[in-house]
């Protein structure tokens, strides 16, 4: 199934003419998107609480207000604070300032997809979600190099929601390489799936590999450098992004290619498929994870999970090797 791809020619920045655009949260994404929008000629203000991001926003020359005041002044409000605090901050400080005809822009579909934001009637809700860290959103904009971006119109109260979304996407550089028509549900599900299925599987592979190799008498230094401390996997993933998963195989020796493809053919993916399907359907799409995370004490629960993970022998070996590095 293919999706519509929007490019610069599909986006009309006049959709933002005469409208005040506010970035709410001048963190990693907020700082990058605010700078890009301003450089694209869009009237910008910033809303931020009194924290470590406040001074950099002022130093960058933005008119900075409290989050509540910026939301009240804005016609288009970009919600760029962390997912876990969005529902309470939105209800208490942002929603009261939004009026009919305004646009709420989210960069993560999570809280929209799971119904955790009570957006006032008459307000458009759109998603402009860069698939790139904030620093790269800025540097790629400056170099005029595109990056992947998801866009959607989640609520079209005015009839111009998608037009506004594409204008914002173009303003931050998100249509230069093509913005993918998506949805908050799709963006959130894919993001959560990567976090809860793919990366845990990768971490488990490394942990298990360490245990097997360590039991056979190989040194920690050799094992961990072979697995990832050398940085080789990062180089491989960079090549995958340019050449594809199989395309990058040509950069390896024939012995390596033969071993990788032979091993791939011997794996039984059925158990992994069952695990991944369960995560997607039972944890993510069902809303169970969102309900659990909303009810949790984030700092305490994260500390518990991290403490448990740190008990694995791989973690101890990794700490020892990293401590020896210059």
TrEMBL record:
<keyword id="KW-0028">Amino-acid biosynthesis</keyword>
<dbReference type="Pfam" id="PF01450">
    <property type="entry name" value="KARI_C"/>
</dbReference>
<dbReference type="InterPro" id="IPR000506">
    <property type="entry name" value="KARI_C"/>
</dbReference>
<dbReference type="InterPro" id="IPR008927">
    <property type="entry name" value="6-PGluconate_DH-like_C_sf"/>
</dbReference>
<keyword id="KW-0560">Oxidoreductase</keyword>
<comment type="similarity">
    <text>Belongs to the ketol-acid reductoisomerase family.</text>
</comment>
<comment type="pathway">
    <text>Amino-acid biosynthesis; L-valine biosynthesis; L-valine from pyruvate: step 2/4.</text>
</comment>
<dbReference type="InterPro" id="IPR036291">
    <property type="entry name" value="NAD(P)-bd_dom_sf"/>
</dbReference>
<dbReference type="Pfam" id="PF07991">
    <property type="entry name" value="KARI_N"/>
</dbReference>
<dbReference type="InterPro" id="IPR013116">
    <property type="entry name" value="KARI_N"/>
</dbReference>
<protein>
    <recommendedName>
        <fullName>Ketol-acid reductoisomerase type 1</fullName>
    </recommendedName>
</protein>
<comment type="pathway">
    <text>Amino-acid biosynthesis; L-isoleucine biosynthesis; L-isoleucine from 2-oxobutanoate: step 2/4.</text>
</comment>
<keyword id="KW-0100">Branched-chain amino acid biosynthesis</keyword>
<feature type="domain" description="KARI N-terminal Rossmann">
    <location>
        <begin position="1"/>
        <end position="182"/>
    </location>
</feature>
<dbReference type="InterPro" id="IPR013023">
    <property type="entry name" value="KARI"/>
</dbReference>
């Amino acid at each position: 199934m293919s999706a519509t791809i929007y490019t610069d020619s599909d986006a009309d920045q006049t959709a933002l003419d005469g409208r005040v655009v506010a970035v709410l949260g001048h963190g990693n994404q907020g700082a990058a998107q605010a700078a890009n929008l301003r450089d694209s000629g869009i009237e910008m203000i910033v809303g931020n609480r009194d924290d470590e991001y406040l001074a950099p926003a002022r130093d960058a020359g933005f008119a900075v207000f409290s989050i509540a005041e910026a939301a009240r002044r804005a016609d288009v409000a970009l919600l760029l604070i962390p997912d876990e605090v969005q529902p309470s901050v939105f209800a208490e400080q942002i929603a009261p300032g939004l009026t009919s005809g305004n646009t709420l822009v989210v960069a993560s579909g999570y809280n929209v997809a799971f119904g955790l934001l009570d957006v006032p009637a008459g307000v458009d809700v759109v998603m402009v979600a860069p698939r790139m860290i904030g620093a790269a959103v800025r540097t790629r904009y400056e170099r005029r190099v595109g990056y992947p971006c998801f866009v959607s119109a989640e609520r079209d109260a005015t009839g111009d929601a998608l037009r506004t979304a594409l204008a914002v996407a173009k303003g931050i550089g998100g249509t230069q390489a093509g913005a993918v028509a998506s949805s908050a549900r799709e963006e959130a599900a894919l993001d959560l799936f990567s976090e809860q299925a793919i990366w845990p599987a990768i971490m488990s592979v490394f942990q298990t590999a360490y245990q097997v190799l360590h039991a056979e008498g190989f040194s920690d230094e050799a094992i961990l450098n072979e697995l990832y401390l050398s940085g080789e996997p990062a180089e491989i993933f960079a090549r995958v992004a340019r050449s594809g998963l199989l395309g990058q195989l040509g950069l390896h020796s024939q012995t390596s290619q033969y071993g990788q493809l032979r091993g791939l053919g011997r794996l039984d993916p059925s158990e992994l498929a069952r695990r991944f399907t369960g995560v997607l359907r039972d944890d993510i799409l069902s809303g169970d994870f969102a309900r659990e995370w909303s009810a949790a004490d984030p700092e305490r629960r994260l500390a518990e999970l991290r403490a448990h993970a740190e008990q694995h022998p791989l973690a101890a070996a990794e700490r020892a090797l990293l401590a020896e590095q210059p």
